[in-house]
């Protein structure tokens, strides 16, 4: 149906390691551009999920993220090039104010917890409050339970997480960055969903836009409703 | 005949020398055939003869060659003898060489053994020498010498020593060894004691003296530990002194607001200097790769002292308190209850300075450690060493503490920015003659200031966060303000109010009456609202440009940062955050466009429309006399031009050139559309058509002078309509239509052409219908 392709630029690259023209080329060469921000407690596996998706590997001894990391991957979905800007944020408390500044312009949020860690699940309402406060109201949020390869250590039952996600009208997916379970699907499903939204938005805008020069309704009313 | 037969046949079989066989000849009966064959045979005979002659001619040369060969025979025998002799010689030489090399190999082996023996003898001698030497040196308190002996002993081949003990001199060697081991232990204790004494006495010369001895005894780790402790205690007492001075408060006015940043700077510079001064000793006496160990020690002290400074900073500046006030104010946004943004200025500046210093310091340490590892590591710094370095720097308490400070800084700076922008909006003033009002300049001054401050922290994440917030403030808050101002609309003029009907006029009067200011206020506030709208349009336009400029300037500033060696990942991060500014700039452009459309709809259209439609009241179904009358007293177009001029004059002074230009473009479009509608409602005589043509020319000529856009194109349809209305006869259109159109491109459809033709009262509809277009 669709297949992932090309380019990813991990922030851990040393300078000069990727040619600049490649980057600038990718700037124009896409049909859609979406910003995806990963959030969730420290150590739940956000960085591993991103590295698995963008670089196809499970990094051994992955250290805690400092601030935010930035990666780009362009995927092709039904013949359309979709450029994903992925912001991998640090879960540690002291980086919270840096992380929060990225919510507003995010098209999608991947809220991650660790199925072997009850604590990371119990923090979810707190994360949802953050989203409520900082993200724009059109953001697509998906809940991800990571580390399903550690089935024997599971502390959060699938049903419980599904119920919770449903009550908050979020999508839900369980993944393993280690075994590469559902990781591709997570990002590609999200991209599909975002394309749908974008198309819907375009339609809505066209419906409400007044004819140019006619009537007193001004269409900039409709595009000002962020936050 | 019978004799010849078999012979000929035989010849034939053997060599087929002749192409004609005997039988064939015998079978011939015709004279003609016989003659032909005869001819053929004659020719063949000639050929054979010449071949024979050639072969006979060669006999001489063959003979000469044979002779030469016979002469060579003896020579060949000679060569064979020589060759076998040579082969014998080679075999002999070969075996000789083999013999020699075997002997050389044996010699070589002997030599190596000899060397080993000498080495062992030397070692044993050394052992003796060391044993004696170490005793003397210890007695003389010459610890360097003693350590040198022990070092010599320690670097002796242990297996050789073992072997020596099995030899004849075993007991002597054993005794030496025991003595040496004893001396080694003794020396280790003494050196440690002496170093501790020197440390206690704060005697740097002695400390360094004994520090150098440790690696000779194989005690690298211990030496570095003790030396590190010494340096740390030095740093600690100095740092405490500095902090006491800082919190004592008796400082010059000027540095007081930055005193904690200064104190931190002193600490970090002190450590950097320590690293710089002691790196050579460590390198020389401990070898490469050991600087890391020393720095690990120093960093622990740095962490302790930095934490103290930061704690004091937090306490004395009320840092957390300020943060909480700012934070809760932003959440609830209770105006007036928050902290004055101005009050945050010093602490925000101080904290960014602190972080910048820490980043600089950590970069310095990274450079030094990697350079030190590089000397020791084979090709490039090994991954393990690289990771150790990063781990030390990224996870040290100093880094974490700074990350925490920046974590609080960002919301405070955000608060500072939002509050200041709000203030700028609240105190917005407009001076006559300015195109924009004060809040645009003020707002961008604030945004620039905040981002520059974030940039000065040297933390890329901090900078990115502030770019995000700035973008949010501009795109949401500030744009909302301008948007709301535009939404109040451009008030229609009083004239229009009257035209709109009594009811609205009454309501206007009533509201004015209630305010007790009948006459003037209504008009004045309308004028005021008009000006406000026009200024806001300018504001929006300037904002869009300012954002583009802001982005460009930030790109320049950041490129400087990257020349200092931030990674390309970091660069991509900033680029992405900056590119959001482009979207925001575009949103301001959209807003401008919508505002202009609004202005066009409410201010230009209602005025221009009646001016145009007054064309209807001027008859264009006219005769010579009226035409001349119009010539003398222009009935319409001159007044229209005067009106338009007045209308646009207002915008020309009030608007930026860019906006004025867009506005005139909108107006000319409007005029051409309205004119077209109006003309189609009129009827024309031949002279009326001429009159219209004149009027249109005047109008186009005027409009060309007020705008930089080309308007011929916008008026192309009208001009073509005038051409049609000017025709003598219906069929004359064919001179301009289809293949005869020449350079003219018709903008009117055939149906429209018919429609315009029908406006002429003197054209018969049958003629028009009959036209083939
Ligand atoms: N078994 C297993 N371990 C995982 C998986 N994903 C991540 N981990 C481990 O979990 C730990 C934390 O992973 P990270 O990706 O660094 O977590 P993070 O969410 O990025 O953490 P912060 O950057 O501190 O917010 C690492 O030791 C990973 O090896 C997974 O799918 N299965
Ligand atoms: Mg991470």
TrEMBL record, chain A:
Cofactor(s) annotated in UniProt: Mg(2+)
Transmembrane segments: none
Any single biological process term in GO: Rab protein signal transduction
Membrane topology annotation: Lipid-anchor
Catalytic activity as recorded in UniProt: GTP + H2O = GDP + phosphate + H(+)
GO terms of molecular function: G protein activity; GTP binding; metal ion binding
InterPro entries in the cross-refs: P-loop_NTPase, Rab, Rab30, Small_GTP-bd, Small_GTPase
GO cellular component assignments: autolysosome membrane; autophagosome membrane; cytoplasmic vesicle; Golgi apparatus
Membrane recorded as keyword: yes
Family: Belongs to the small GTPase superfamily. Rab family.
Function of the molecule: The small GTPases Rab are key regulators of intracellular membrane trafficking, from the formation of transport vesicles to their fusion with membranes. Rabs cycle between an inactive GDP-bound form and an active GTP-bound form that is able to recruit to membranes different sets of downstream effectors directly responsible for vesicle formation, movement, tethering and fusion. RAB30 is required for maintaining the structural integrity of the Golgi apparatus, possibly by mediating interactions with cytoplasmic scaffolding proteins.
Protein known as: Ras-related protein Rab-30
Organism: Perca flavescens (American yellow perch)
From TrEMBL, chain B:
Classification via InterPro entries: COG4 (IPR048682), COG4_C (IPR048684), COG4_M (IPR013167), COG4_N (IPR048680)
Main location: cytoplasm
Name under which the protein is recorded: Conserved oligomeric Golgi complex subunit 4
Domain COG4 transport protein middle alpha-helical bundle: from-to ranges: 180-487
Keywords: Cytoplasm, Golgi apparatus, Membrane, Protein transport, Transport
Pfam families in the cross-refs: COG4_C, COG4_m, COG4_N
Biological process, per Gene Ontology: Golgi organization; protein transport; retrograde vesicle-mediated transport, Golgi to endoplasmic reticulum
Subcellular location(s) per record: Cytoplasm, Cytosol; Golgi apparatus membrane
Membrane among keywords: yes
PANTHER family noted in UniProt: CONSERVED OLIGOMERIC GOLGI COMPLEX SUBUNIT 4 (PTHR24016:SF0)
Domain of life: Eukaryota
GO CC terms of this entry: cytosol; Golgi membrane; Golgi transport complex
The organism of origin for this protein: Perca flavescens
Family: Belongs to the COG4 family.
Bilayer disposition of the protein: Peripheral membrane protein
């Amino acid at each position: 149906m669709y297949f992932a392709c090309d380019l990813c630029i991990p922030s851990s690259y040393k300078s000069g390691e990727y040619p600049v023209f490649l980057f600038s080329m990718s700037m124009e060469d896409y049909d859609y551009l979406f910003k995806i921000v990963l959030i969730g407690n420290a150590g739940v596996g956000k960085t591993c999920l991103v590295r698995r998706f963008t670089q196809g590997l499970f990094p051994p001894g992955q250290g805690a993220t400092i601030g935010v990391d930035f990666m780009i991957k362009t995927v092709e979905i039904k013949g359309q090039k979709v450029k994903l800007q992925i912001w991998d944020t640090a879960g540690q408390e002291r980086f919270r104010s840096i992380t929060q500044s990225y919510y507003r312009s995010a098209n999608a949020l991947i809220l991650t917890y660790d199925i072997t860690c009850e604590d990371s699940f119990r923090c979810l309402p707190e994360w949802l409050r953050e989203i409520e406060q900082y993200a724009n109201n059109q953001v697509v949020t998906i809940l991800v339970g990571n580390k399903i390869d550690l089935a024997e250590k599971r502390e959060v039952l699938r049903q419980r997480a599904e119920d919770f996600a449903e009550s908050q009208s979020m999508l839900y997916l369980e993944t393993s960055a280690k075994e590469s379970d559902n990781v591709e699907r997570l990002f590609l499903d999200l991209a599909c969903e975002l394309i749908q939204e974008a198309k819907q938005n375009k339609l809505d805008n066209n419906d409400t836009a007044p004819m140019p020069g006619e009537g007193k309704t001004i269409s900039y009313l409709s595009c000002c409703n962020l936050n | 005949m019978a004799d010849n037969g078999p012979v000929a046949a035989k010849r034939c079989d053997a060599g087929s020398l002749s192409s004609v066989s005997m039988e064939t000849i015998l079978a011939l009966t015709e004279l003609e055939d016989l003659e032909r064959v005869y001819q053929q045979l004659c020719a063949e005979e000639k050929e054979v003869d010449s071949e024979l002659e050639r072969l006979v001619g060669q006999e001489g040369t063959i003979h000469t060659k044979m002779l030469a060969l016979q002469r060579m025979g003896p020579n060949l025998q000679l060569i064979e003898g020589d060759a076998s002799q040579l082969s014998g010689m080679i075999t002999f030489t070969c075996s000789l060489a083999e013999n020699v090399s075997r002997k050389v190999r044996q010699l070589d082996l002997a030599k190596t053994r000899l060397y080993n023996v000498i080495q062992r003898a030397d070692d044993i001698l050394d052992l003796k020498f060391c044993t004696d030497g170490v005793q003397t040196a210890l007695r003389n308190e010459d610890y360097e010498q003693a350590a040198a002996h022990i070092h010599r002993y320690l670097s002796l081949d242990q297996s050789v020593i073992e072997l020596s003990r099995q030899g004849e001199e075993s007991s002597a060697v054993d005794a030496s060894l025991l003595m040496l081991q004893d001396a080694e232990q003794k020396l280790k204790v003494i050196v440690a004691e002496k170093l501790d004494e020197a440390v206690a006495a704060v005697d740097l010369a002695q400390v360094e003296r004994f520090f150098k001895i440790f690696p000779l005894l194989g005690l690298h780790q211990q030496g570095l530990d003790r030396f590190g402790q010494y340096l740390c205690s030095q740093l600690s007492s100095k740092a405490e002194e500095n902090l006491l001075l800082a919190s004592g408060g008796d400082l010059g006015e000027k540095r007081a607001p930055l005193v904690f940043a200064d104190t931190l700077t002193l600490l970090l510079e002190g450590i950097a200097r320590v690293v710089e001064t002691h790196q050579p000793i460590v390198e020389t006496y401990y070898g490469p790769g050991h600087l890391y160990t020393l720095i690990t020690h120093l960093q622990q002290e740095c962490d302790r002292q930095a934490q103290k400074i930061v704690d004091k900073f937090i306490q004395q500046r009320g840092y957390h308190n300020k943060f909480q006030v700012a934070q809760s104010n932003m959440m609830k946004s209770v105006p007036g209850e928050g902290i004055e943004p101005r009050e945050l200025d010093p602490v925000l500046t101080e904290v960014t300075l602190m972080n910048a210093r820490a980043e600089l310091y950590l970069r310095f340490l990274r450079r030094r450690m990697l350079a030190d590892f590089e000397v020791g590591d084979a090709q490039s710094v090994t991954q393990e060493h690289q990771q150790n370095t990063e781990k030390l720097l990224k996870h040290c308490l100093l880094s974490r503490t700074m990350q925490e400070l920046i974590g609080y800084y960002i919301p405070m700076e955000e608060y500072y920015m939002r509050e200041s922008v709000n203030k700028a909006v609240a105190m917005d003033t407009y001076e006559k003659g300015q195109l924009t009002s004060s809040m645009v300049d003020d707002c961008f001054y604030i945004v620039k200031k905040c981002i520059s401050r974030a940039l000065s922290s040297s933390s890329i994440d901090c900078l990115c966060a502030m770019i995000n917030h700035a973008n949010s403030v501009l795109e949401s808050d500030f744009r909302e303000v301008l948007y709301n101002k535009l939404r109040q609309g451009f008030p229609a003029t009083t004239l229009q109010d009257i035209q709109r009907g009594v009811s609205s006029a009454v309501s206007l009067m009533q509201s004015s009456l209630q305010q007790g200011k009948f006459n003037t206020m209504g008009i004045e506030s309308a004028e005021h609202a008009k000006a406000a709208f026009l200024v806001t349009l300018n504001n929006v336009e300037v904002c869009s440009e300012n954002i583009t400029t802001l982005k460009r300037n930030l790109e320049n500033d950041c490129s400087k940062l990257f020349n200092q060696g931030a990674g390309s990942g970091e660069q991509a991060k900033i680029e992405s955050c900056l590119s959001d500014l482009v979207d925001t700039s575009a949103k301001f452009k959209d807003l401008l466009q919508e505002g202009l459309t609004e202005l066009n709809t409410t201010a230009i259209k209602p005025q221009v429309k009646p001016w145009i439609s007054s064309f209807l009241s001027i008859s264009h179904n006219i005769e010579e006399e009226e035409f001349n009358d119009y010539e003398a007293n222009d009935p319409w177009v001159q007044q229209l031009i005067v009106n338009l001029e007045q209308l646009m004059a207002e915008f020309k002074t009030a608007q930026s050139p860019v906006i004025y230009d867009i506005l005139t473009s909108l107006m000319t479009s409007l005029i051409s559309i309205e004119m077209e509608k109006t003309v189609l409602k009129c009827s024309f005589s031949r002279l009326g058509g001429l009159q219209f043509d004149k009027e249109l020319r005047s109008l186009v000529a005027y409009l060309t002078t007020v705008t930089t856009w080309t308007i011929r194109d916008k008026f192309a349809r009208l001009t073509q309509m005038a051409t049609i209305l000017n025709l003598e006869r219906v069929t004359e259109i064919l001179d301009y239509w289809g293949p005869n159109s020449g350079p003219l491109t018709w903008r009117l459809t055939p149906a429209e052409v018919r429609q315009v033709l029908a406006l002429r009262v003197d054209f018969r509809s049958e003629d028009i219908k009959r036209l083939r277009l």
